[in-house]
Structures are given as structure tokens and as C-alpha cells.
């Protein structure tokens, strides 16, 4: 599979990145004040290289408060199901909230701005009290240690409160992104077997109320037998149906509950949360994270990479529906006692200056967003950010996909005023925390490279045989050679799939990330893209398989194949080949195209809507019946077909698939709001 990439796409990427030779050294001023300077970084690397497990054990003792200290650091007897600090006990919310009460109880933990402009501030003391109240309410509703709680909320403080309330009592949260539709919510709830769903009447997005309760009701009407109780936050105040005996308002649920709640002292390996992400085949994977190891990874990487100081205001624009919002909104920064900004709405409401206005008004000093958002906002011109005072910014971050050098330079010059280092952070839902990134006070950066692995992370690039690739211009599989504390533990309910998806390629020798990468002469990593059939749309993974099944569930569709096509703003867009039941639609197919797009939107959420739909009589298949996606990819990109087509069952189909006169593609390119159609764009 890698060879495909090595063939067309990767070589182009490699060429383009090899042209990138600019290097940016950390300024002396930034380096002098940084939490980790070059000398400290070198010392951390030496320590980790000398004693991998010992390095992480020292950090775990220093960074986390343990109720029962651990005596075993890494247990690899069940590899690849590794465990860390397994006999230690702790509580995650205690480590993020209680530990700060004495020293910074009145410090602002969360500054929230809703899309309509409403602002709320919660101090660590207030946040702690709200978490305890909800934790007590959940207990009163029968939620116990190990029970699953689904969370389907807008990006409001209650989302963070709900996550911490769960972990306070040992319940396992499963946040479902508010941009997902009812069927996607239903699938995820059913896979977790959640007892309680926490949702809201709605949230504000692009000036509209997003009707979350309506979607939740639909999901529950169609299935989800495990749900006993629905707790509903009042956010928009729009009327909703409350089902007696099942639905309960949040404000009523917490009424009379105490503002203190004894934490559940759970084992370090107790699952903290499940978070679903797309794979190339089958249903979404329920990534299962631990408590102790995960929190350690989130906390130390927040300190190292974002260099947070006591006075910083940190804004990670990701929704808590994605892992970025877990690790760099709810867990890492709070464990450090930082102030975080939370913004509910669209980056372009009421106009494209909203992000920069938020940075100005809330004195944001460290800003972390996705390349897709940067590209979209870049298109609006520099006058827009130019209207705001961005002088407080001192550090910028990027995540979700490779950032193209043009966007990197714009971010650096226009948003960072040329003075802010940029940390391009590579990681995944599965890795729990950032694994590769520059440290802003210690590492020279190159636009488009996530630079080198953090201390304690042994990433490598290997060829088909598993041998390390050393030649600078050769790509390979990105792998991690040793387990690390914040790694996923398994896939919920499917350990076989966990082993197959991440470990089988090289017989358990390393964790296989599913990305291809290469290293330059300085040992810097350049991520080239995925090696599997997974698209990266607006910084988020979409499985081709999920979109195909959504399409095929439409009565007119017999067969579908989905591939990615490079897109200026989203990184990749969804390109679907569709075979209809009966005759191939010809003539004006716009209405059918619109219907199929909406259909996918309803099944999965707006982010998954195909940008292009091309109808065909058939799909190109091998004699064994496998769809030849790499061919479809080349066609979607308008490239010449250089692949071997001799194994193709029905070669005549190629001309039809290449057909240029497809009204489906007369559809206009999406505007900015479509590029940022979902909060996905922000994380
Ligand atoms: C995939 C993981 C983890 C946060 C957001 C996405 C791609 C992520 C980078 C980066 C190049 C990146 C990879 C990875 N990716 N960050 N800095 N440079 N590619 O999480 O949905 O789990 O996706 O996003 O392909 O495998 P995710």
C-alpha cells in the first residue's frame, strides 16, 4: 500500500517539502524565558534514552498526585496491551482541580465566550464546585464506577464539567462531537453501552441554533436501549420535548447536591474515556484511554510544547468532541493550572475576524489551531486580522494535518507578527498526546515539518521490511518503537482489531501510526499522509468505508467508492463515485447530487458530505472484485493513469469514470463557511 503513496502522491509531496529550506531559530528572548531550553531538552533526551521506563516513572511521580503510589512502571507481559503505573491509584479530576484550590483557587480556569457574545468566567474553585455537583447528581442517577456516559454538547463550560464529573466518580466518558448527526450518535452510544446521555437543548453555530436534543431524541428513538437517563442542559432556551421518566434538566439534576464529592481513587489503568475515530474498514474505532498514563502525557506535553506560564491565556480552538479538545482543553492545561479560553461558535461569525477579536478581547497568549482554519482565514486577507490587537500572542501551534509552508509563513508573519514560534504538533487520537513537535524555546523550526519526537518517544520511519529508512529522500511507515504512557490501551470491545490495526504490520515490533513520513538530512520528520484509505478532511479522519455505507444506504445507490482529492482549504475533500440502481443518471443530475450530499450529511454529519459525486455504470475492480481505489484517486485528481491496469476486470470503465462533462461537478466550490462547516475545522 505504501508503494502507491511512494508512487504518485508521496513523491510530489517529497519534492515540495524538500524545496522548503527556511529554518527559524528560537529567539534568544523566547529561549531565555522558556520552561524548557536547549540544555534542559538535551538532559531530558539523555535521561529518556538511558532509562525509558525510569524516565516516565520519574515524571509520573513528580507530575501527578497519587493516592496510592505505583510500584510497577511498565508491564509489557501482555504486549501489545501495555500497562503503565498499574498498581497506583489516583483521580484525574483531583489532579486537575483540587490540587489547585489552595494556591490558585480564585484563578480563572475557564473563560467562555458563546457565539452570541455572552461571556462567563469560572475560577478553579467554581469549576471544582460545579464538577462535584454534577458528579453527585450522576451518582444519584445510578451512575457508578466503570459505567459509560455519553456526552453530546456544544462547546460550553458544561462540556468540560461533564467530563470531569464522570472521571471524578470513575465513570468513563464518551464525547460525541456536536456536529455529528443522529445515526452517528446512535452508533457510538450503542457501541459504548452508555447508561446516561448528557446533552443540551442546542448550541449556537453560524448564527443558528443547532438542535442537539432533536438529534439525541432521534438517536434514542432508533435504538440505544442502554440509555436510562438523559440530562439536558439549557443553552439556547428553545423549546424541546422532555420525555417524562427519562429526561431531566441539568439544573434540576444538580439541585440540592453538595459542592464537594469524594473522588473515586481508581487504578491508573482504569479507562478515562472512549473516543471514536475512523478506520479504513468497518465501524468507527472506540479508542480507549487510561487514566494515569494519559493524564501524564497530556500534562507534560502541555508544559513542554505550549510552554505555559502562570499568566498565560491558552486557546486551543478544538471542540471537546475531538481528542485535541480532550488533551489540550479539558485535561493538560487544567492539570497545569492554566487559564483556557473556550469559544462555542463559528470562526466566521459574525465575520472572519472573530478568532482574532477573541484573541484580542481575552488576551490570548498561546494559540493552537488547525491548518484548515488558518488557510480559510488566510483567504480573507491580512486586513482582517490587521484590525485587532494581537500583540499578546507569544506562541502559535498547529495540528491535524501537515501545514503547507505558505500557510505556515502567513501564520508566522500575519498572526504571530514574526515574533511567535510555531509548534507543528504531530499526534493522533490513539497517541493521546503530542508525540512530535518542536519545543518553542529549544528547537529550530522548518515550515511544514513537525521536527523531531519529544523526549521519551522513539519514533522512526521504516521500510516494508521494518528496517529504519535512513536516506533523506525516501519515505516509509511512521512507527513508534517503544510504548509510551498516553498510548491507547485497546479498542473498546475489540482487542483483536486493536492488535490488527496497530501492531500486526510488523509482527508487534512497533506501533504503526498509519501515516507515511520521511526524514531530512537533519533528522526532521515530514509527514506525507495516510497509508490507508482514510481521508483527512479539515484535520479530521474520515473513513472512506463509513461514507460509502452512508451512500449505499440511499435507495437509489447500488454501489459507491470514496476517495480523497486535495483541497485548498480542507486539505482533502470527499470525492464519491456512485453506481445507481437501474440506469446511470444522465442529463441534469444536480438534484440527485444534492439529495445524496444531504443524505450523507444526515447519516454522518456535514463534515462527511461529498464535495464531488460522479456517476458511473460500474466501478473499476480487480478480478477478485476489489475496488481499485488508487485508480479512482488518480482520476479524481485528474492525473494520468500510470498504474498497472492489466488486473482490471473491466478496463472500458476508465473512460467513463474520467468523463469530464459531469454536471455533479458543476457544483460550486464551497465558500469559507463550508470549508469550516463544522467545529471540526478548529481541531
Ligand atoms: C492524523 C490523526 C491529533 C489531533 C488531531 C487529529 C494527521 C495530525 C499532524 C501534523 C501532519 C498530522 C496524521 C495523523 N496529523 N497532526 N502536525 N502534521 N499530519 O487527530 O483525527 O486522530 O488524526 O492526523 O495523519 O495520523 P486524528
Q: What's the SSE blueprint?
A:
Blueprint: H1 2-7, H2 9-18, H3 28-33, H4 38-50, H5 52-63, E1 74-75, E2 83-84, E3 89-90, H6 92-104, E4 108-113, E5 119-123, H7 124-140, E6 148-152, H8 157-168, E7 172-175, H9 182-192, E8 196-200, E9 203-205, E10 208-210, H10 212-222, E11 229-233, E12 247-249, H11 250-253, E13 266-267, E14 273-277, E15 285-289, H12 292-306, E16 313-316, H13 323-335, E17 339-343, H14 354-361, E18 366-369, H15 371-378, H16 383-386, E19 395-399, H17 405-415, E20 422-425, E21 459-462, E22 476-480, E23 490-491, H18 495-502, E24 511-519, E25 525-530, E26 534-537, E27 540-543, H19 544-552, E28 557-567, E29 571-580, H20 590-604, E30 612-615, H21 629-636, H22 653-658, H23 672-675
Parallel strand pairs: 4-17, 6-7, 6-8, 7-14, 8-11, 11-12, 16-17, 16-18, 18-19, 19-20, 29-30
Antiparallel strand pairs: 1-2, 3-13, 4-5, 9-10, 14-15, 15-23, 21-22, 22-24, 24-25, 26-27, 28-29
Helix pairs in contact: 4-5, 6-7, 6-13, 7-8, 9-10, 12-13, 15-17, 19-20
The site of 5'-O-[(S)-butoxy(hydroxy)phosphoryl]adenosine has 23 residues, from helix 13, strand 20, strand 24, strand 25 and strand 27.
